[in-house]
Specification:
3-stranded antiparallel β-sheet, single chain, 2 domains, 235 residues, globular, Rossmann fold, 6-stranded mixed β-sheet, alpha/beta, 8 helices
């Protein structure tokens, strides 16, 4: 089942500036789709287009169901200076209209998972970058949406935090959620993603699972990094 369908003819930050063009893919139930590319490839712009944050776009973004049921986990933590971690969770629960008992159970589980229970009444502004990233992950998981849109989630996370994140993400996928994950960490993406959308210079240069990417590049035994390197040279 397709949870997210994207077909962008062109989009940008003004009517006469097309940052991305011919970007089309879908995210299915249980799938982890890697949005891959170097800095400036158009990954973040694509995510903004999906969330409806670009002033100019010609195309269609469609979520399954009546409403846009997704969580966005940004690369850079977005936190309120005067709110504690717990108050951030309370605010998100109110915005999502999560039942109080459900919220308390989920929040407790997520705080334990990411080892932040003891600092839940502290200000996240005093946390390390990795701890702040964990706060964003907790906020993203709190809704339990049908689609997760994740932008460079591994920046700042230590190995334990990365493992905890992937374990919980896989649990969400097992329940039917789909994941769109933007990253330039190709070695990690190759290990965890089911399929890939490779971008360069604002457009898609290849898509499919690793075997299909290898076929498109005519590199049957190569890594995702080697395939992408060849695509960059030829595009």
């Amino acid at each position: 089942m397709e949870l997210l369908s994207v077909d962008i003819k062109h989009a940008g930050y003004s009517s006469n500036s097309n940052v991305i063009k011919k970007v089309a893919f879908s995210v299915k139930s249980g799938e982890l789709l890697g949005l891959i590319g170097p800095n400036g490839a158009g990954k973040s712009t694509t995510i903004k287009a999906i969330m409806g944050l670009l002033p100019a776009m010609d195309g269609l973004v469609k979520f399954a169901g009546v409403s846009k049921n997704y969580s966005y986990i940004p690369e850079q933590p977005v936190l309120y200076e005067g709110l504690t971690l717990w108050e951030h969770l309370e605010l998100a629960a109110a915005a999502y209209e999560i039942d109080r008992k459900v919220f308390l159970a989920r929040a407790d589980d997520l705080l334990k998972l990411f080892h932040l229970t003891e600092v839940k009444h502290h200000l996240p502004g005093t946390f390390s970058k990795g701890m702040q990233q964990k706060v964003m992950l907790i906020l993203g998981f709190l809704l339990e949406p049908s689609v997760y849109v994740v932008d460079e989630p591994f920046v700042g996370l230590d190995p334990r935090g990365t493992k905890d994140f992937l374990v919980h993400l896989n649990q969400a996928r097992a329940k039917g959620a789909g994941v769109l994950m933007s990253t330039h960490m190709l070695d990690t993406a190759e290990k965890i993603c089911d399929s890939f959308v490779l971008m360069n210079a604002g457009t898609v240069v290849a898509r499919g699972n690793l075997m299909e990417i290898r076929t498109q590049c005519q590199l049957p035994e190569s890594s995702l990094f080697e395939c992408f390197d060849q695509l960059l040279e030829s595009s």
